[in-house]
Q: What sequence folds into this?
């Protein structure tokens, strides 16, 4: 399937409309928010998400939430990572896989037309990362995009030997170094969230010491629709969350501007993992 040029033009028009609307919202939101309850954190949603296996701890004690400020970095202590552990308006939007090049392209367009900050968990064997490398590079260099490791071929790590786990992570590490000039260490996401102490140790042996799970997600591991994606986004995008979406489903393309607008309306600040965590 290909995305028609008309669709891309339509998306560009919608984005420019949203951006000009955003200026107005920027003026109105402080007034509107004053009378509106803070977006609810779906504290139980993590359990309903695509079951991170291996004993993912829900809740975070990286640092007492009340001690953080919006620009302060947080120490990594409670692993696997499944929330930011901050008490402000920060949210990490993390994007996995990259199975469909056109959907990676839609995220690139969002980067080009907004101030969004994203962390991509790259599955190295998917071609779209090569196709869009030149357009992604400036954002990687400026720090608005962080690249993390989502293995080479998206296997269930629990089914692999330690040696195979290392190979899966190292192939994508080499791809990211060769193509973008950056290492993804220490952040990686086990496919399907499947991990245990053994897989963690195998990854940590080569410097991948931080398995990253998620607080909530866009219910987009199977074919979905723009309206279902937006409904999930309304639930998932709240302060302190690590939100998981995928660059796989075509439905994602049309809804990204609406999700960005939702983030603006809630006065959330998108951050990469490097924006938040001190990892060395
Ligand atoms: Zn994945």
A:
């Amino acid at each position: 399937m290909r995305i028609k040029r008309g669709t891309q033009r339509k998306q560009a028009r919608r984005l420019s409309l949203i951006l000009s609307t955003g200026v107005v919202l920027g003026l109105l939101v402080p007034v509107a928010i004053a009378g509106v309850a803070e977006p609810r954190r779906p504290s139980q949603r993590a359990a309903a998400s695509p079951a991170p296996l291996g004993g993912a701890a829900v809740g975070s004690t990286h640092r007492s939430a009340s001690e953080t400020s919006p620009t302060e970095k947080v120490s990594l202590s409670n692993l696997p990572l499944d929330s930011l552990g901050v008490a402000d308006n920060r949210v990490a939007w993390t994007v996995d896989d990259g199975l469909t090049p056109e959907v990676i392209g839609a995220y690139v367009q969002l980067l080009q037309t907004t101030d969004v900050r994203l962390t991509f968990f790259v599955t190295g064997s998917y071609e779209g990362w090569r196709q869009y490398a030149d357009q992604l590079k400036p954002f990687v260099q400026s720090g608005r995009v962080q690249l993390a490791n989502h293995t080479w071929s998206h296997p269930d790590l629990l089914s692999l030997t330690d040696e195979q786990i290392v190979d899966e992570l190292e192939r994508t590490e080499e791809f990211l170094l060769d193509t973008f000039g950056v290492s993804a260490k220490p952040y990686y996401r086990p496919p399907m969230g499947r991990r245990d102490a053994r897989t963690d140790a195998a990854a940590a042996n080569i410097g991948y010491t931080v398995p990253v799970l998620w607080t909530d997600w866009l219910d987009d591991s199977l074919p979905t629709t723009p309206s279902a994606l937006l409904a999930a986004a309304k639930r998932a995008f709240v302060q302190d969350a690590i939100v998981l979406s995928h660059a796989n489903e075509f439905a994602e393309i049309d809804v990204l501007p609406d999700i960005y607008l939702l983030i603006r309306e809630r006065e959330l600040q998108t951050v990469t993992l490097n924006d938040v965590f001190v990892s060395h």
Q: What stands out?
A: Residues 96-97, 150, 154, 191 surround zinc ion (CB under 6 Å).
